Amino acid sequence: xxxxxxxxxxxxxxxxxxxxxxxxxxxxxxxxxxxxxxxxxxxxxxxxxxxxxxxxxxxxxxxxxxxxxxxxxxxxxxxxxxxxxxxxxxxxxxxxxxxxxxxxxxxxxxxxxxxxxxxxxxxxxxxxxxxxxxxxxxxxxxxxxxxxxxxxxxxxxxxxxxxxxxxxxxxxxxxxxxxxxxxxxxxxxxxxxxxxxxxxxxxxxxxxxxxxxxxxxxxxxxxxxxxxxxxxxxxxxxxxxxxxxxxxxxxxxxxxxxxxxxxxxxxxxxxxxxxxxxxxxxxxxxxxxxxxxxxxxxxxxxxxxxxxxxx
Amino acid sequence: xxxxxxxxxxxxxxxxxxxxxxxxxxxxxxxxxxxxxxxxxxxxxxxxxxxxxxxxxxxxxxxxxxxxxxxxxxxxxxxxxxxxxxxxxxxxxxxxxxxxxxxxxxxxxxxxxxxxxxxxxxxxxxxxxxxxxxxxxxxxxxxxxxxxxxxxxxxxxxxxxxxxxxxxxxxxxxxxxxxxxxxxxxxxxxxxxxxxxxxxxxxxxxxxxxxxxxxxxxxxxxxxxxxxxxxxxxxxxxxxxxxxxxxxxxxxxxxxxxxxxxxxxxxxxxxxxxxxxxxxxxxxxxxxxxxxxxxxxxxxxxxxxxxxxxxxxxxxxxxxxxxxxxxxxxxxx
Amino acid sequence: xxxxxxxxxxxxxxxxxxxxxxxxxxxxxxxxxxxxxxxxxxxxxxxxxxxxxxxxxxxxxxxxxxxxxxxxxxxxxxxxxxxxxxxxxxxxxxxxxxxxxxxxxxxxxxxxxxxxxxxxxxxxxxxxxxxxxxxxxxxxxxxxxxxxxxxxxxxxxxxxxxxxxxxxxxxxxxxxxxxxxxxxxxxxxxxxxxxxxxxxxxxxxxxxxxxxxxxxxxxxxxxxxxxxxxxxxxxxxxxxxxxxxxxxxxxxxxxxxxxxxxxxxxxxxxxxxxxxxxxxxxxxxxxxxxxxxxxxxxxxxxxxxxxxxxxxxxxxxxxxxxxxxxxxxxxxxxxx
Lengths: 311, 333, 336
Description:
By secondary structure, chain B is α/β, with parallel strands linked by helices. Chain B has eleven helices and twelve strands. By secondary structure, chain C is α/β, with parallel strands linked by helices. Chain C has a domain at about 5-85 and about 180-185 and about 210-335: 3-Layer(aba) Sandwich (Rossmann fold).
């Protein structure tokens, strides 16, 4: 197969490659992911939860924020009761007379939005800090990592609680609190994998090719650190949702008018003893399903993206 | 000398220092004796490489040959000494000249897997640097990359593939194409064929030789494999624990080595022509570069060592035209 | 003297059942090793040489398994034996040395603990006797101050010393056969020579049989009595080391030898084998080397058998370089 080119002496290596070439990485990723039926189920469930949560205004039978449609006369109806307007509350109603199914859908929307927004912002903050620490090294790295250690040595709930006590209530405030409570996890993850990547020969090659530091960090090192970042991102988003629920349950998170799942659970809590279980249990179930499915997807992502487990 | 060498190392040293961390400083306060660890990876090395020459750099692990290669390629700055590019000090040159000099020296790495960015396609791996440095226009990149791939014996249709879709030999060719893309005049090859199978190794070595004639490249060829170095080099430099112990034209070195370490090395290289041989190994282990023996670093393993070798490090002296050796035995001791 | 070989492998097939298909890593290997003999098993990556070694020790893991064939150690069939029996044989009658000695050594245990355990796992020996035997084993592989070394942890040894300890552990129960998989590849030249020296001495003194798996023709050239050259899961040539290296029958062996730089004129182009090793998932019909072979023709579409050439040699080729048809022209063919 030694094709000799007219002017050149090098034989062209045109032999067919061992593996069928150019199998789309995405396709391989999807097929690897689908190896676990459980994870596939979790991913589908998660997708369904996300869709109904974001379509809440369209599909929810009632707008729980619209005080005109909510009647206190309907308060605490058990699941399956028909109200005066002839409408069936399949999951019952809460203490304020809101349709629980609608409240859960809207609550999910808020919980997931808060989780995603804080996760994404924390990811970018942590990623930038971690990359700089790993690439620059020396005192800068030492200083940054001590701050990260300090941050991680406080429970996230505590950090968020203190911040919210200072900032007050509101979606923006809780997102800020969650970002502050979580950026350090991302920074530590990115730094760990960037440290490994930085020592690889392709980074030395990029240096000797005279590429700028910014280019080396963002075009060469960063893409190789994404896999662990995605995994941590998934798990941390689940944490963020749980944390937000905790904070709302404690009454420092979101305002009563825009209840998230945590607040719904808290609202129903006082009625638990009187046997009106549904007000707390159904939002609780929704929260549980969301977090468990995110975590299962995260676990499978870790298995699929782990380079040590790849062929 | 009539001709300015293309690249000169003047008394270059490179030290790596592992500083104490906070915990170690703390235990020192309480009386522990933790010290900074200093590795003299390269210790006062001077080499001049002529235009078009192939210099083989040979040594065992810990001898500093890879570090020296990285100093030459501009990846590490020397701790001491000067690096001259065509007679000009690179350190004190203008930023522009510095960049040019750096681009003129490119490195080919050992591990064909980790030396290519796994998340980049071949066209970006090869085309990125020339585009960034304005060697080629955005529209011309594709043709330029194709040219480079052809040059190293790869089918240009491979340009859209990722490194993991190549075999080891092909990956090494991609690495060579990446280096050639910035029009270098000097290649540092750090164990560039060590990880390849014998038959593939021959293909890549042939490629290096072709590039030398086609492009007039100068090489610093770093290897532990004396057979490869003998085949390729005009001149050989032998290092042991950070120091150069002998340099000589290849023929002369392999005909009659001067330094006892070189002799031991040559005697122990397995050769395909020697069968059922009696191995007569040199005794002892390679000392840790953290704590090299005083005097001549080789004296604990040297069969000819005498009193002076333990005290005094021998200087690299000319023993014949073009030949240098660092051994006290040459002083008529 | 007993004439039966220590190890007789016949038509061994070890296949790996992967998602992408069946990889025939070992596909019909036949070889034998006699007492006191060193067999060099040579091949490039993907030739199946390591899997052959693992198969002999019964160490092939999922998704791989031995599909057919026979492995007889001193006449005893190993294929199909239950894992419990194999474990008794491993370390007692056959031992393996790996490229990375840390495959054998446990990093958190002292060397003496590991060695004594290895002895007592295979026999009722008192601790003192076991310690004495461990000490002797260390002396035998040339480790200075063995008493002190016994008390050390693996990380306190250099790479070469670690490999010696691994060899000493392999020797502990005086096995009949040692399978060594590239044990000196990661070592420096002077350290490699020390290990080769010890191994050579051991085989000559104890009558131990050894399979030395390597890609490096130069190393086995100096060490082995016989060579078996593997390509794409099969032995393509076998014979005494001098005959194989000086007058190779198979074009692949010839190409391999031609690729060694020290075998070529300095500065000249090396003779190279064009192309690359075929994937074990998609082996071509017939001779797997045909696509890279300058002698290939239509006959090569049928797999050639492993044919005998004289009393001690064999090759798997339709067009071998025998005395009648040998010529210098072939080196030129490879060079083009």
